[in-house]
């Protein structure tokens, strides 16, 4: 019943909002994003839409619905699988229960840098990962950048694993996140994102972990001035189209969509890098201390039990090995 209600609601909302566009376009594809208008992922899909419209002479339009207008990520992924929504932009983390490889490729300290992440996703491994979505009714079009998650706290600069011992950190309700904190000797405290500021302020927790733009926009830098650039998690973002919608397009239009998506990824990554830099400069100017001299070796070694728990098949172990060897 819940699924039916979700599908009907999505249909009514998108039909109403996209009505005008449908009148002038032969095909209108509805694309969902949880982020607000102006966010790099939203602007990326908008750029893709502009290129597709131009190259098809206005035959194909992509209507972007930001700010969770069509639902939260997991709901909109499900709707895209059923073809109620045509496209979705979502984090790999939201695909973990659907496409197992997304959990393996989102493990802590798997990537050396954001450049390393891009090389992995833009190469043969990225193609291999994309191939595992089709059986779930989804066709990946582009990998976007979601930045790197880092630790920040109100107590002290964190430079070593020992500095984390006994500290309380908010994490998302995710088993990998909880196990990561345990392996580092810290205490994971899952809680809603909206409660983090007051919880740090009142000492319920010592800190949290996220990227620079979130650390900045949430105001967390005001109550947790120590930010450690350890880049423990880099979770890819994905733009995918419903297999049902995809198969209605001609091969020529599919190629236009793929090319526009790749071009949009280049723009989105540029916009994300600019937003990260601006947020970093802003929090430093406001008094935050950013610790960059972090030797990640001990942090990586501490993840051994996490990898033992979640990398359990020869295929997964081989994938991790190939990701780490990518230059």
TrEMBL record:
<dbReference type="GO" id="GO:0030288">
    <property type="term" value="C:outer membrane-bounded periplasmic space"/>
</dbReference>
<dbReference type="GO" id="GO:0030246">
    <property type="term" value="F:carbohydrate binding"/>
</dbReference>
<dbReference type="Pfam" id="PF03480">
    <property type="entry name" value="DctP"/>
</dbReference>
<dbReference type="GO" id="GO:0055085">
    <property type="term" value="P:transmembrane transport"/>
</dbReference>
<dbReference type="InterPro" id="IPR004682">
    <property type="entry name" value="TRAP_DctP"/>
</dbReference>
<keyword id="KW-0732">Signal</keyword>
<feature type="signal peptide">
    <location>
        <begin position="1"/>
        <end position="23"/>
    </location>
</feature>
<protein>
    <submittedName>
        <fullName>C4-dicarboxylate ABC transporter</fullName>
    </submittedName>
</protein>
<keyword id="KW-0574">Periplasm</keyword>
<dbReference type="InterPro" id="IPR038404">
    <property type="entry name" value="TRAP_DctP_sf"/>
</dbReference>
<dbReference type="InterPro" id="IPR018389">
    <property type="entry name" value="DctP_fam"/>
</dbReference>
């Amino acid at each position: 019943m819940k699924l039916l209600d979700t599908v009907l609601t999505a249909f009514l909302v998108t039909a109403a909002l996209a009505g005008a566009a449908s009148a002038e376009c032969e095909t209108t594809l509805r694309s969902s994003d949880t982020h607000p208008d102006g966010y790099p992922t939203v602007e990326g899909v908008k750029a893709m839409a502009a290129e597709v419209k131009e190259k098809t002479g206005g035959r194909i339009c992509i209507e972007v619905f930001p700010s969770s207008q069509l639902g939260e990520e997991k709901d909109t992924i499900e709707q895209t699988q059923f073809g109620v929504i045509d496209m979705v932009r979502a984090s790999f983390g939201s695909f973990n229960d659907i496409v197992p490889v997304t959990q393996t490729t989102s493990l802590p300290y798997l990537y050396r840098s954001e450049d390393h992440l891009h090389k992995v996703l833009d190469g043969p491994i990225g193609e291999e990962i994309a191939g595992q979505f089709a059986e779930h009714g989804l066709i990946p079009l582009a990998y976007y950048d979601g930045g790197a998650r880092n630790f920040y706290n109100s107590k002290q600069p964190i430079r070593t694993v020992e500095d984390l011992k006994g500290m309380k950190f908010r994490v998302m309700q995710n088993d990998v996140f909880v196990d990561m904190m345990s392996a580092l000797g810290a205490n994971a405290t899952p809680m809603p994102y909206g409660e983090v500021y007051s919880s740090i302020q009142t000492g319920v927790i010592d800190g949290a972990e996220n990227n620079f733009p979130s650390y900045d926009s949430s105001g967390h830098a005001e109550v947790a001035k120590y930010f450690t650039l350890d880049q423990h998690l880099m979770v890819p973002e994905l733009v995918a189209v419903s297999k049902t919608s995809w198969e209605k397009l001609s091969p020529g239009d599919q190629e236009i969509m793929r090319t526009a998506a790749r071009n949009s990824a280049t723009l989105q990554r540029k916009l994300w890098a600019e937003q990260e830099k601006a947020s970093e400069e802003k929090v430093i100017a406001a008094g935050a201390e950013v610790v960059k001299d972090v030797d990640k070796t001990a942090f990586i070694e501490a993840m051994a039990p996490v990898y033992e728990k979640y990398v359990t098949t020869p295929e997964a172990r081989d994938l991790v090995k190939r990701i780490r060897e990518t230059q």
